[in-house]
Amino acid sequence: MRVTGMMQNIQLLKNLRNINTAMITGQQQLATGQRINKPSDDPIGTGYQMRYDTDLARSQEFLTNTQTGSEILKTMDSLMQQANDVLKRARTLTLQAANGTYDLEQRQTISAEIKQLREQMVTIGNSTYNGRYLFNGQKTDQPPYTVAGANGEQTDSGLFYLNVSPSVKVPVSITGEVVFGAANTDNVFKVLDDLSSALGSNNTSGISAALDKIDACADRISVSWAEIGARTNRFDLMENRITNDQVSLKEQRANVADVDVPNVIVDLKSKETVLQAALSTGARIMQTSLVDFLR
């Protein structure tokens, strides 16, 4: 087959175009850090990349849930400490008031402080996290207690859950009745109400009876406190597990989609050399004309 000048020129331009296309691809890979920038770069790898991206996005949602759950439980842990301190103070005051040397006026003074402690306990029961009430079950938009009627108010019995994996959800909330006692029983609010009344009326038998009831309320809070601690530990374990899974997923995704920078740089430099050689050779070929053969 006779090779014409036109054929040489076309082949030269085709080769230059291929080299330039390869160099543009290498430059784009270096600029983005990604080996796959469009599905045609690697159809099979694109499928794996999309799967890893989906898994990472879902994993991030679970990680956010575990972190949120941990923060809620840390808040509740602090509230249990506050409630415990309130009951400790109430018990100390009750022991003082049970002393036979105290008179009516002194006990009425203690009664006034017990009322303040009772209001503080209501405030603890109405605590929120990011605008959500913590002790009203699934009715997180409604306060569980009022100052006037806390001892007879029933909280929602539902639980607020957070998903920490596709098949696992962990309860976060604890209902107010579990922590502070059921409505219309010797819950913490009624105990403090009765104690305040006994102090105000100088009822020594009522004052003494309040000690055991305060201890029962403290025990109930301690049980809830321990449950909060156990849940906190579980969220911490789940957070560590999700973080480790993300490291593995990111590594697998990098193996499929991320560019090997040193190799791409070497390859790009090699293509630049080839391009310069092709341009130099092409320039010499294209300078040859019919006049050159007639000489």
TrEMBL record:
Name this protein carries in UniProt: Flagellar hook-associated protein FlgL
Gene3D superfamilies noted in UniProt: f41 fragment of flagellin, N-terminal domain (1.20.1330.10)
Record carries keyword Lyase: no
Keywords assigned by UniProt, alphabetized: Bacterial flagellum, Cell projection, Cilium, Flagellum
Superkingdom of the organism of origin: Bacteria
Residue ranges constituting the Flagellin N-terminal domain according to the UniProt record: 7-140
Localization: Bacterial flagellum
Family named by the database record: Belongs to the bacterial flagellin family.
Pfam families hit by this protein: Flagellin_C, Flagellin_N
Flagellin C-terminal domain mapped to chain residues: 211-294
Keyword field contains Metal-binding: no
